[in-house]
Design goal:
The structure is a single chain. By secondary structure, the chain is of the alpha/beta class. Helices cover 66% and strands 7% of the residues. The protein has helices at residues 16-19, 40-50, 77-95, 107-116, 119-125, 127-138, 142-181, 187-227, 231-247, 251-261; strands at residues 2-4, 28-33, 60-65, 102-104. Strand 2 (28-33), helix 2 (40-50) and strand 3 form a beta-alpha-beta unit.
């Protein structure tokens, strides 16, 4: 998912259309403006929907766009680079994200450089570093990201099942105490309590069997999922999509290629 923060104002009437998808997104490309840094609205979206405390940081990439606004002819290149580095450090501290996941770029200058085949301007736009991160890091990490999500969901399922089993165990212990107190009392009462225990034991064993069955099916589906998420198929799909987009003549072909890829 690519979230361009200026668009947040445009979806103010129905923000759930976009924001509700963020927590479950495998990867998020969060675009900020280098001249303004992290605004209050950006920080709110990040904390509430993307970078929750203790949440995973894999697949979270921040782009500081418009670094060309910091290119001042009265400053040396070293001073400009130092100002960009300060922006990256501030952004990393504010978003609680490693600096190597924050990429300062100039999208407009990169586009201009590619149109004019201006290699020095392309290097100065720093867009190549972002492209390498998307190609060499984000796509190969997709399987790991999906695995982390699957493990998290299974952990929730396990925790709920464990809580249920603990509750059942507590009930059995209470019944054991009742049986202990009934020792030497009316035989009919004891038989009634034994029947009750036997019935709940059967329910417990039935529930345990269902749990094992569900876990077996879940393991099989997880193995199938991992088998289909290899790096090689993703690389082939990426190359095919890139070739289709390069050869495209109309925007419809581009849209169709991107839709097929995602």
């Amino acid at each position: 998912m690519i979230l361009d923060t200026p668009g947040l104002n445009a979806i103010g009437t129905e923000p759930e259309l976009t924001l509700s998808l963020l927590p479950n997104a495998h990867a998020v490309l969060f675009i900020l403006a280098a001249d303004t840094g992290v605004t209050q609205s950006d920080l709110t979206v990040w904390r509430e929907h993307i970078g929750t405390p203790g949440g995973r940081k894999k697949g979270r990439i921040v782009v500081l766009n418009k670094i060309d606004s910091l290119w001042d002819e009265l400053k040396s290149q070293q001073e400009i680079d130092a100002e960009i580095s300060r922006q990256v450090e501030t952004c990393a501290w504010t978003l609680d994200l490693p600096e190597n996941q924050i990429f300062p770029v100039s999208a407009q200058k990169a586009l201009l450089a590619k149109i004019n085949d201006d290699q020095p301007l392309l290097e100065r736009s720093r867009v190549s570093e972002l492209e390498r991160a998307l190609t060499d890091e984000l796509i190969p990490a997709k399987q790991e990201i999906v695995r982390d999500n699957t493990e998290s969901e299974f952990a929730d399922c396990y925790q709920r099942t464990r809580s249920l089993l603990d509750s059942r165990l507590l009930g059995l212990r209470e019944q054991l105490v009742e049986l202990t107190e009934l020792r030497g009392k009316n035989k009919g009462v004891v038989e009634y309590m034994m029947g009750k225990v036997r019935h709940e034991k059967e329910e417990f064993e039935s529930g345990l069997q269902r749990y094992y069955a569900v876990r077996s099916v879940f393991s099989q589906l997880t193995n199938k999922l991992f088998a289909h998420l290899g790096v090689d198929p993703l690389r082939l799909l990426t190359n095919h999509t890139r070739e289709t987009m390069v050869a495209a003549t109309f925007s419809k072909t581009l849209s169709t290629a991107m839709a097929h890829f995602f």
